[in-house]
Design brief:
Helix content is 0%, strand content 40%. The protein is mainly beta.
């Protein structure tokens, strides 16, 4: 008698604007024919198959999504006799409604002024969410309102996924890379 394949494991999702990229671990059955990907907007039920034919790879890109909507995904494995495994563990993903064009750097204040006071320390994070290095040469960060108390001018690049944290102490009037 035939035995259905094992449920796929390791299902993960990465989100981008109007896209959810799924990946999972490959099954090891010798008679594996492929995979099906299912999606729902309700956890644990109402799954609809997304792929028209069996998938041979362990990745799937869902571009038919609405930003801000929570989607629930499961994957199944199918063997050469069309037996289908139970669903994988469910994961959820929400495509963001933010577009970050290539070359965009995210700059955020890490330590906001507590209780509306101006502390002696400021912490700023610079993050490169893009897939390639971004040249920061000539970029400048300044501390001060009507006059410049201190400034930092960058030379060089920030790599993909890299975070730079800058601390500024008004008491020393200098900026240092942390």
């Amino acid at each position: 008698y035939n035995i259905a394949p094992s449920s796929p494991t390791g299902l993960t999702a990465q989100t981008r604007y109007q896209t959810i990229n799924l990946s999972w671990n490959a099954n090891t059955e010798l008679d594996l024919a492929g995979y099906n990907v299912y999606r729902s907007t309700v956890s644990g039920t109402d799954y609809v198959k997304l792929n028209s034919g069996l998938l041979s790879s362990t990745t799937y890109q869902d571009t038919n999504v609405i930003t801000g909507t929570t989607y629930f995904y499961v994957v199944s494995a199918i063997d050469n006799t069309a037996l289908e495994s139970a669903y994988s563990s469910e994961i959820s993903a929400v495509p963001p409604d933010l577009i970050l064009p290539d070359g965009v750097i995210v700059i955020s204040e890490i330590m906001y002024d507590p209780n509306g006071t101006e502390p002696d320390e400021e912490w700023v994070e610079i993050y490169n969410p893009t897939g390639s290095p971004v040249d920061l040469t000539g970029w400048e960060i300044r501390d001060g309102n009507s006059y410049v108390e201190s400034s930092l001018t960058f030379v060089g690049t920030i790599n993909p996924g890299q975070v730079i944290i800058i601390s500024d102490s008004n008491s020393t009037n200098t900026m240092t890379l942390a």
